[in-house]
Amino acid sequence: MRLRTAATTAFLTAVLTPLALLPLTAPAAHAAAAAAPYDFNGDGRKDLAIGAPGATVAGKAKAGAVSVVYGSTSGPKTSTRTLLTQDTAGMPGAAEADDAFGSALASVDLNTDGYADLLIGTPGEDGSDTNDGTVTIVWGSKSGLSGARSLFSFFSSDYDRYGQTLAAGDFDNDGDPDVAVGSTGPILISLVAGPIGKSGEHSGGSGSRNEGWSSSPGVTHLSAGAVAGDGHSRVIVHGRAKGTDDAVTTMADMEISNYTDWLQNLPAGHVSAVADIDKDGYADIAIGNDRETSADPAGALGGKVTVVYGGPDGRDTSRAPLVLTQDTAGVPGASEKGDRFGSGVSLGDVNGDGYADLAIGAAGENSAAGAVTVLYGSASGPTTQGATSYSQNTAGVPGGSEKGDRFGERVTLTDHTGDRRADLSVAAPGENGDGAVWSLRGTATGLTATGSTSFGPGTTGISTAGAPAYGTALNS
Q: Where are the beta strands (DSSP E) in 398-459?
């Protein structure tokens, strides 16, 4: 029997309030090697999950849906897909208006059976109170995703909008995959310990208060990765400072039970991604802040991205963070008010050289038509050499840029073809009022728009009634 104690604390102030003791039995261990995240059918190609939290389901507005398009040798293949809603057979609950199923996505092999599983946040789900929120686990298998259960929710009376953001990884350093769940206060972040099986008891968990952060927006974004190079992931936590709307970002080590010890302050931003850009064995953190300084003191004209380098103690304080804007020498374009450079960020190895490359969305570019910039990794960090910008007006990219498309609101660098090179998928939730996703291939010489594809909600089974906001969430 595994015994875990739930604890709470302030992220920025040491105010401790004990929560419940959780004596729980862990599920039996599985022998199979854990699958890579988002490889739901175990074929060596990562699949693409697309959240549409505004989708209408069975006449219920904003019930929400998720399309999963499976990878192939040519990229995401819309003819092989799975449509998920709360009305899908085997899913817990039922589709209801304003549930917002698909607001957040994460993936990990929770039951270590060799197939990645999908976590879906539904922050508008009513439970013990309105907008209690829930998270659904959908299980991977040789034939893809099927079967589901709800993720455990320990403190439902102490938070709302549980599942508004998600991250997955081995956070407590016990070798088993865990889930971090963001919510609104007073409990703002929860750790659900793994492994988690398809049935039976769970392995415990914990939750944290945050006296220094605003409880209303709560934890607004989570990302994770092995920043310290010691084998277990740190969690990057985004929120707002109490009494203001200013961004706050910290890095948490959830192995440490005293939460006041597991925080490192980071440059403030609203989204982030984690991977090893300089190939030194420590994952680095790209933090996007797409707001103007008039809206957020940590913002910049047109937005910015700050790269923080990892080291043996987490953040490498011996290296100055790299700040990137569209006015940085070598970065395409120019910083203009409202560009929202940094609206989305992702890290992945596009050309297969072992260095993680950086995709940056600028959803406000050209009257919110949107654009994406790709910078390549090197031994010294991101380099502007070869930096390229893409939009719907780029040769080879389907469609045409239109005001309000918001191309680049979300971006993900993911290997969908199995060639060990990351492909770029870009969401434009405003496209034609419905949203759409584009996918461009990675090659040995970098990203190419040749042969790129695009598709919208109707192609993958989601209703276009109302405003589905297709692409609000993508693979993290």
A: 410-414, 423-428, 436-443, 446-455
